[in-house]
Design brief:
Blueprint (H helix, E strand, L loop, with lengths): L2 H12 L5 H4 L54 H5 L2 E4 L4 E4 L2 H6 L3 E10 L5 E8 L16 E11 L5 E9 L9 E9 L1
Parallel strand pairs: 5-7
Antiparallel strand pairs: 1-2, 3-4, 3-6, 4-5, 6-7
Amino acid sequence: MGALWRALCAAALALGALPAAAQAPAAGQGGAPVLTSPVPSGTAQPGAAGLPQGTGAGYHSPQSPIKPLPQREDVLPWSTLTQLEKKTTKTRVVPQFSAEQQALHGTVQRVQGFMVPLDAKELQVHFLLTTVPLTCSFCIPGGPESMIEVRAKLPVRYGLEPVVVQGRLQLLKDDPYGLFYRLVDAVPVK
């Protein structure tokens, strides 16, 4: 997913946050590392079978102590954002937004999700919102379509429970961090 993914992976390796098997993967054919998935075989959610890690809407483990997002009628459904086509170029993944998604660009939207803080403070003004909670501080639970960068006008308190924010949605076609969505001038909503 670009620079953001590389930075998260480098930090995880440097801090020893990945299991030994992930830090020094076994060599495969031609000496290339063999990568394995942390998601147990056969536990992928419907529709996610066969997708490589780091794509799709994300996986919420049934063993997670944090409950999935509750159903709400007053928020933009994540399915509207996560169901998109992507084109892979030599250097990045490019979103191919549908007409429905393009119609959302620049509109005020209300979104709920799990906060990924980008600062070590209780109140956040810049963070990621994801479809599923983090299971590790260095692991993103889904692909770029499963997260929104939030730039808040008012600080939002960090917590493990879902948050709801409202702001102007931007679709990102060429974000340097590989993100597809941003919510600006966001405010917390109950």
